[in-house]
Amino acid sequence: MKKNKITVVTPVLNQAQFIEQTIDSVLSQGIEDLEYIILDAGSTDGTVDIIKKHERHLARWRSHKDAGQSSAIHEGFSSASGDLLCWINSDDYFEPGALKRMIGMFDNDEQLDLCYGDYSILLPDGTKEAKLKISFDFEIALLFYLMIPQPSSVWTKRLYDSVGGLDTALNYSFDYDFFLRAGQRLQARPDAIRHVHDLVSVFRIHPESKSVSAQAKFVSENESIMRKFDNFPTWKRSSFYRRYQMVRTLLRYHSERGMVPTRKDTRKA
Question: CDD domains under this entry (predicted)?
Fold first, then answer.
């Protein structure tokens, strides 16, 4: 059984209220061969002091102005020595032991290139709502922007390099773009993508997050990304085909979940 090394990257800018939980969630996984890189874009709110508290456990960190989130993540992966890669944003965090379990999937299957689980949304009132995904389907992902959940995903460095890494020209939907390119490459190898029914991460909703404050910009980038795939037949973009795929998506969800609706965890985080 191969033992894989993982590189985890966290980009951050002025997230002092959240980043300690993010860092703790990575370091407490009990991963023996962990390379953790934090790339700060010049925070002025105390974030750097929190990073310094943990620097002996970090492979590398820096703090200076950069070209943005996608550029910082790309920088981290460019210097990565891990066989596996993932990133966790500075306002999200991993569930206990979940990342370690994900690594175990790769240790037991050398053909695996991309593995992802489910996730929870942490609402502003402190409650967590579980979000359950379906197995990856390129057409469904492209037509409905149903992407693989980034904070709950791990992939091989060989896959990352083979698709050219992140598109640093994108500022919002670079994860959607990456997973589409990766998923398209792996279409002929369905066993290389695995969805595990495990709540791997927690995605925090708060007013300053890009997902809340810049929704229109995500939509604009999503549309530009979709146009990249011009080899995707025009007839498949029709309203009729989209309705067909929507039904197919719902049927797949209920089949994989045994008709279990989305769960809501009302406990406080």
Answer: GT_2_WfgS_like (cd06433)
